[in-house]
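Q: Protein A?
A:
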Amino acid sequence: MEHITLLLGIVIVTALVFDFTNGFHDTANAMATTISTGALRPKTAVAMSAVLNLVGAFLSVEVAKTISGGIINEEGIRTEVIFAALVGAILWNLLTWLLGLPSSSSHALFGGLIGAAVMSAGWSSVNGSTVVTKVLIPAVAAPLVAGLAAALATRLTYRIGSRADDKATAPGYRAGQIASAGLVSLAHGTNDAQKTMGIITLALVTGGVLAPGSNPPVWVIASAGIAIALGTYLGGWRIIRTMGKGLTDLAPPQGFAAQTSAATVILASSHLGFSLSTTQSCSGAVMGAGLGRKGGVVRWSTATRMFVAWGLTLPAAGLVGAGAELLTKQGTWGVILTGALLVVGSAVIWGLSRRQPVTHDNVNDVGEVDGGSDAGLDAVPADAVTAAITDDLKATIPAQPGASPEPAKTASV
């Protein structure tokens, strides 16, 4: 019994560590566009997001119930399975954060949980219908719906304000962006903090502390909310850079449209108990807002890398979770080794991130987005390319005979 109590404590702490990584990994969902357009200073933005994530954690438990009693069968699942699942989710979160890719923390958690459960008890331990209806379908639908809504909202916003002076409308859009960013943060706390609540509740059920089907206790809700808020305040600057500057260049009207559309989709899904990816919803909304403006562009090289990360998240986290569960099945030494590998892996990733640090001071440096000075060439509008080529030709082709030469310029000494 003492061993189970100790193991439960380790699992709960590990779950809160995942929640913390979820916070800084997904800060970009709410604040990337607000920071990139200058509506809020970076540190102010993440502080505001942290507070609203904490508030959002107390608004609902529908998603938590989906995690704790829907995706896998509670009966026959050992507490070690939850630990292995969290190892897979944390390592994938940290790896994609290092690469600056806005992948889904939610799908990392689901993948780790499914992989560990299958390794422990076989495929029968997974509720396939729940995975399809409440994970896979929302994963495809959420970014499409949010992107389409953001594109339409952007077009409508520009049409309504076509005759208005930009300087006159700027304060209104700034206030709208701040309000919509707050709504996204609230929605993120409502949806993502609940996933950790569900995992801790599931661990308590497998350890015999709670009865199957129980709601998360108040202390679980509070601790999950605090952990995700602290992670949010830390700020995942690498992913904020990708979301705010790497996918497209957003003007304040586009930022407002993207955030409002994403928040609407996330809040509606939380109410229905759909455990969708807030990252995918917000990324889809940002791309939709980029395409919704006339002449707007999307950097498809960055978007393609992001799509690949989305596709890999479930299976990659599942494989790590399954490997971790294979170790934990060996007994106490396996659990200790799994924990040691988690700590070492996290330390290595953190050390690599320090080679090229991204902070609130350089988060909006466009030249460093997408890997170099020529990043974003795929997003340059055609008229800009034409103008550049014309200027180059004028500079290199000699003037034709009879053409009036330009006045000679006297060099200053």
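Q: Protein B?
A:
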Amino acid sequence: MKVDNFRLQLGKKEYIPIVVGGMGVNISTTELALAAERLGGIGHISDAEVCHVCDQLFSTSYTTRKRKKYSYNAGNRDKFDVHFDLGELAEAQKMYVEHTVSQKSGNGAIFMNCMEKLTMRDSSETLQTRLSAAMDAGIDGLTLAAGLNLRTLDLIKDHPRFHDVKIGIIISSLRALNIFLKRAIKLRRIPDYIIVEGPLAGGHLGFGPEDWKSYNLYTIVKEVLDFLKSEDLTIPVIPAGGIFTGTDAVKFLETGASAVQVATRFTITKESGLPYDVKQRYINTEKGDIVVNTVSPTGYPMRMLRSSPVLNYAIKPNCEGFGYLLDNKGRCGYIESFYRALEAGKKGRRMEITDQTCLCTGMAKYDCWTCGDTAWRLKETTNKMAEGSWQLPAAEDIFLDYRFSEDHHIQKPSPEERVNS
């Protein structure tokens, strides 16, 4: 059996059952999402740090204006005064989404991964703004991710596209699904799809710092499928995390899943937003180079490369320009760690911060090298060049490999001229 033997049904539309995950900040680029859409699947973009993303793509100056506005507060550990301009936030979100969806050319769809943990100093207001603006701009679907917020549906229930746009949730347990569904049923807006993210995924994990080791994706997916059947609910279930081959995907599809979400193999594509040298690092990764840590100010454990520059950060917080993780009182774990280290520092010694990192700056600079548990296998998927570097596959190469491969075979991209025979 191949992935191509199955189809994902969402409403009245049918898709190739391959969903490319929404990796931020702008790792899942417009180009990557469009490649999946053109091939009949679903591609995600991410709204993580969308103002900064627009500054890079369209030469806007949202970050600069915000930094100038609050420059008086740059030396203050209290960030209570720092807010995003909701009008500019909506403008940036619309610009980014319209730029992407206007280029659709296939039968697939473009979804947006909306990171609910980006509290941005005003959690409800900024989340409502981002979701509403994405719908205004024509996004096909919204995937609610990075911290399931039970109030999210309430924030957009009056939007004219509330029952039109596809809305999905990312969960890591049946318990989380149960809690969310109770509120969704009251609003008569059951999610259109459920992404079940297991413990082998990249980036933030929906488990405790240690208990992620006690779970496996297949078991969680089976629990969710059995629960939905018992409740007579027909909602597509989409497993994610650790699905490295088409054969891995077929295992879940034969069990009753409707599609799979994949991401790690797409980090090294030509279309991925990661810098070239970082893609080479990913391919050269060995199993021992991957670590799950607790340095994220969100409180969630994260999986990344051990060599990520963000793990050595001791930089001044840039909340006046960024501030995407400031809570509603203007606090962030990294700010506290930074000022504790500053006060305890000794003259002539480099300041060290080991318990937290400045995730906003790290993600913006591509210094936070998040990856799935299977990243060490990336060298199996491409060709080594004569001078020692690795060929970067196109997103289409990987998408088609997932779609048509059998027996865990991985079809490498056609060798370029400089590749060893």
